[in-house]
Amino acid sequence: MRAFELTAPTTLDEALTSGATALAGGTTLVDLMKLDVLTPPRVVDINALPLRGIEVDPAGDLRIGALERMSAVAAHPQVYPVISRALLLSASQQLRNMASIGGNLMQRTRCGYFRDVAMPCNRRDPGSGCPAIEGANRMHAVLGTSDACVATHASDLAVALVALDARIELVSTQGGRSVALADFYRLPGDTPEREHDLRPGELIGEIVVPRLDWAARSTYVKVRDRQSYEFALCSVAVALDVRDGRVADVRIAAGGVGTVPWRLTAVEAALRGGPADEAAFEAAAQVAADGARPLSHNGYKTALLPRTVVRALLEVSRG
Fold first, then answer.
1. How far does CA 142 lie from the centroid of its chain?
2. In angstroms, how far is CA 100 from the centroid of its own chain?
3. Residues 269, 270, 273, CA angle at the centre, nearest 5°?
4. Which fold has domain 215-318?
5. What is the pLDDT of residues 139-148, one digit of tens each?
6. Rounded to an integer, what distance in angstroms lies between the CA atom of residue 186 and that of residue 244?
7. For residues 6 and 42, what is the distance between their CA atoms, to the nearest angstrom?
8. Is 5 helix (H, G, I), strand (E, B) or coil?
9. Which residue has the higher pLDDT, 209 or 1?
10. What secondary structure letter does DSSP report for 11?
C-alpha cells in the first residue's frame, strides 16, 4: 500500500469539498489499495457524517442511510425480505458488520484481471485490453458485455434494490439529485472505466425503496461454488404478488450474469396475468438469457439463469 493522507471531517461540506476518495467501512477500498489497484493520494473518512438511519417515511417508502452497516439493515424489521436475504448472503458476518450500504453499492468488480496490476484491464487502464475475453472467464458476465469488458457486477444488494425500483439520493455542494439505481450503473461499452453516474464532489446520501406492500413476499436466491463467503455464479431477486392463483405483479432482477444488476423485464411481462405455477414459471424463464453472449468457459450461465429464476419463483410462491 502506498502512502496517503487521511482526514476525518465532521460535516458534509468538508467532505464534499475535500476532493479525496471516500472511506466508509473500507472493506473494498482498503483491499484495492493494498493491491495497488487504487492509489489515492488523499482519503477522507466519512463515518462521522450524518448519513445514517433506517425508517419508513409517511409515504411508506423505506429510507436507508448510506452509512448504515449491512448487518444492521439486514436485521431491521421493516426491511423487505429480498433485501435482508441479499445482505445475509453477502460476505461474512464480520464484513457485514463493517461494510456500509453506500460502499456496497459502489464496490468494484471482483474480476481477477482487474485486481492483478500485472495484467492489462480496460477498467483499470483504459485501452490496455480485456484478457478475460479469451482467458479465465468462468465467473464472468454473459449479459451487457462488450468487446472492452466482460466483468460481472459484484453487489448482491444492488440486484435486490434494482428489482424493487430503488433510487439513490446523491448529495453535493451543488444540491442533491435523485437517480434510479438501475440508471446509476453504466454498461461497459467502449468506456468500462466509467462504471457509474457518481459525479465529482458527490456522495450517496441514502437509498430509497418505494413502498411495495406485496414485496413482503420476496426472496433472493444465490447460486455459488460454496455455501458462504463466495460471489454469485448466478443470483435472482424476486418479489411476487399472487392473487387467486395468478400473478398480479412481479419484480425480478439477476446478478452474477451481467456487467450491471440485470432487470428481467421480459420475464416479468411473460408472468403477469398468468398462473402462478411451475409450468408457467418455466415457460416465462426461457427468455431470461435472451441476448446473452457466452464466452469459452461461462456458457453454463445461459442455462443456470432460467433455472435460478424458476427456483426463486417457486420459493417465494410456496412461502
1. 16
2. 13
3. 85
4. Enolase-like; domain 1 (3.30.390)
5. 999 999 999 9
6. 39
7. 6
8. strand
9. 209
10. S
3-state secondary structure of 161: helix
Using only C-alpha atoms, what is the Rg of the chain? 19
CATH number for the domain whose boundaries are 1-50:
3.30.43.10
CATH code 3.30.43.10 region(s) in the chain: 1-50
Per-residue pLDDT tens digits for 136-181: 999 999 999 999 999 999 999 999 999 999 999 999 998 899 999 9
pLDDT score recorded for residue 167: 98
Would you say 164 and 219 are in contact if contact means Cβ atoms under 8 Å apart?
A: no
User: Using 50, 70 and 90 to split pLDDT, how confident is the model at 319?
Assistant: confident
DSSP class per residue in 184-237: HB---TT-TT--B-PPTT-EEEEEEE---GGGGSEEEEEE-SSSSS---SEEEE
Where in the chain do CATH 3.30.390.50 domains reside? 215-318
Interatomic CA distance for residues 267 and 160, integer angstroms? 16
